[in-house]
Design a protein that fits this description.
Radius of gyration: 26 Å
Number of strands: 12
Largest sheet: 7 strands, mixed
CATH class of the largest domain: Alpha Beta
CATH topology of the largest domain: Rossmann fold
Shape: elongated
Helix content: 25-40%
GO molecular function: CoA-transferase activity
InterPro entries: CoA-transferase_III_domain, CoA-Trfase_fam_III, CoA-Trfase_III_dom3_sf, CoA-Trfase_III_dom_1_sf
Number of domains: 2
Strand order of the largest sheet: 6-5-4-1-2-3-12
Strand content: 5-15%
Number of helices: 17
Order of helices and strands: EHEHEHEHEHHEHHEEHHHHHEHHEEHHE
Protein name: CoA transferase
Distance between the termini: 11 Å
Keywords: Transferase
CATH superfamily of the largest domain: Crotonobetainyl-coa:carnitine coa-transferase, domain 1
Organism: Novosphingobium aerophilum
CATH architecture of the largest domain: 3-Layer(aba) Sandwich
C-alpha cells in the first residue's frame, strides 16, 4: 500500500461536513462536487476494477496513464476516492463503519439496490439517526416507473423539454431536439445540493436526519416553468419555436449580411429604441406591435419586417450599436470563444489544479463569489481508489496489515500514482 498523503485543509462554509458519495455518472457527482467546493470533505466510493462509469466516457482522455475521460474530470474534484467492493459483506461492513463518521450519504443505485448490502436508508438510519441520505434515481422511489433506469436523454424527452426545443415542424431541420448539455442530470444535482443543505439545517435544529427522494423526471418537469404555466394557466400548448421566445418578441436570432446576431428585447421601451436604431421607428407605433402582447400575437407579421431591416447590417456593427444604446444583443460563441471571453477571463472561471503526479487538470470553477467563504479547490479529480489506504487508515484506524489483507482478498483496491 502507498503511504497516505496528508490532504490539504479545506476552507469554506461547509468545513467539517463529511459526505460519503456512493454515486456515479453525473447527477450525484455534480451534487457532491458542489458540496466539496464549499468545503465539505467528500469521500467517493467506487467499485474495484470498475470505478465511476464516466471514467471511460471518452475520448478525449487525460494523457497521464490513467485514461480518465475529460467527462469524468468535470464533476469529481474536491473528492478522495476509495475502492471498496460493497457487494462483499466485509466491504459493505467497511462502508457502514464509514457512515458513522458521515453527515451525508449520496447514492444513485436503482430503487432497493442497496438494501441487499445493508446500505439502504432504513439500515443506515438505525446506525445513525441524524444521517441525511439522498437517493437520486430517474423516476423516484415510488410510482409505476420506479424500477426503470433513467438517463438524461430519456428524461429530456419524457419531461416535455424536447417538445419545446428545436426548430418547428415543417422547416428544414425541424423536429424535437435535446439540449446540448445533460441538463436533467445537472439540475438534479443542484436540487440535491439544495435539499441536502435544507435537511442539514433541520438536523442541526432537531437532531433528526431524513431521506431525500429525488428524481430526474420530477426535476426536469419542475423546470418547465413558463412553458408549463402557459398551458396550466392559459391553455396555450407550448411548441417548438427554434430560438424564438413563446411570450416575448423579438427575442431570437436574426441574420445579418455576414452572420447571425442575437436580439433579446424584454420590454416595450427596448423595442422602441431598437426600431429607431434599425431605422424602422414606425414599427413601434404600429398597433399590431406596440406592446409585448401585441408583438407576441402578431409575430408572423413583425419578424419578416425585422429580418429585412437587420439583413442590411454587418453583425459586428449591429452588436456595437446595440451596446451603445444599452440594448441586450450579441453573437453565438463557440465554446472555445466563450471560455476565452474577456468577461469570463476577468471573472476567473477557468481554473487549473494538479493531480498527485503533477498532471494539470483544467476545470470550470464554482460560479458564485462568496465574500467571506469563497469556494476552495484543493483536490484534483482523483484516480479510482488512489486514497483507499489513507482514508481507511484515517477514518477507521485500520492497520497496514489489515489493509494488505483486504487488498489481497479483493475487498479493496488502490491505484498507485
Amino acid at each position: 500500500m502507498t503511504e497516505p498523503a496528508a490532504p490539504p485543509s479545506p476552507t469554506g462554509p461547509l468545513v467539517g461536513l463529511r459526505v460519503l458519495d456512493l454515486s456515479r455518472v453525473l447527477a450525484g457527482p455534480w451534487c457532491t462536487q458542489v458540496l466539496g467546493d464549499l468545503g465539505a470533505e467528500v469521500i467517493k466510493v467506487e467499485q474495484p476494477g470498475q470505478g465511476d462509469d464516466t471514467r471511460r466516457w471518452g475520448p478525449p482522455f487525460l494523457d497521464d496513464g490513467s485514461r480518465d475521460s475529460a467527462y469524468y474530470l468535470c464533476a469529481n474534484r474536491n473528492k478522495r476516492s476509495v475502492a471498496i467492493n460493497l457487494s462483499a459483506p466485509e466491504g459493505a461492513a467497511l462502508i457502514r463503519r464509514m457512515v458513522l463518521n458521515a453527515d451525508v450519504v449520496v447514492e444513485n443505485f436503482r430503487v432497493g439496490g442497496l438494501a441487499r448490502y445493508g446500505l439502504d436508508y432504513p439500515s443506515l438510519r438505525a446506525l445513525k439517526p441524524d444521517l441525511v441520505y439522498c437517493s437520486i434515481t430517474g423516476f423516484g422511489q415510488d410510482g409505476p416507473y420506479k424500477d426503470v433506469g433513467g438517463y438524461d436523454f430519456l428524461i429530456q424527452g419524457l419531461s416535455g423539454l424536447m417538445s419545446v426545443t428545436g426548430l418547428p415542424d415543417g422547416v428544414p431541420g425541424g423536429g424535437p431536439m435535446k439540449v446540448g448539455l445533460p441538463v436533467s442530470d445537472l439540475f438534479t444535482g443542484l436540487y440535491a445540493t439544495i435539499s441536502i443543505l435544507a435537511a442539514l439545517r433541520h438536523r442541526d435544529q432537531t437532531g433528526e436526519g431524513q431521506h431525500i427522494d429525488l428524481a430526474l423526471l420530477d426535476t426536469q418537469v419542475s423546470l418547465l416553468t413558463n412553458q408549463a404555466s402557459n398551458w396550466l394557466n392559459g391553455g396555450m400548448a407550448p411548441r417548438r419555436l427554434g430560438n424564438a421566445h413563446p411570450n416575448t418578441v423579438p427575442y431570437q436570432d436574426f441574420r445579418c449580411a455576414d452572420g447571425e446576431v442575437l436580439v433579446a428585447l424584454g420590454n416595450d421601451r427596448q423595442f422602441r429604441t431598437f426600431t429607431r436604431l434599425i431605422e424602422r421607428p414606425e414599427l413601434a407605433d404600429d398597433p399590431r406591435f406596440s406592446t409585448s402582447a401585441d408583438r407576441s400575437v402578431n409575430r408572423a407579421e413583425l419578424i419578416p419586417e425585422m429580418n429585412a431591416a437587420i439583413a442590411r447590417w454587418k453583425a459586428e456593427d449591429l452588436i456595437g450599436a446595440m451596446e451603445q444604446a444599452g440594448l441586450p444583443g450579441g453573437k453565438v460563441n463557440e465554446i472555445p470563444e466563450a471560455l476565452d471571453h474577456p468577461q469570463i477571463r476577468a471573472r476567473g472561471l477557468v481554473q487549473e489544479i494538479a493531480r498527485r503526479d503533477g498532471t494539470p487538470v483544467k476545470f470550470l470553477g464554482f460560479p458564485a463569489r462568496l465574500s467571506a467563504t469563497p469556494a476552495d479547490y484543493r483536490h484534483a479529480p482523483p484516480r479510482s481508489g488512489e486514497d483507499t489506504a489513507a482514508v481507511l487508515e484515517d477514518e477507521l484506524g485500520l492497520t497496514k496489515h489489515e489493509l494488505e489483507r483486504l487488498l489481497t482478498a479483493g475487498i479493496i483496491a488502490e491505484t498507485l500514482s
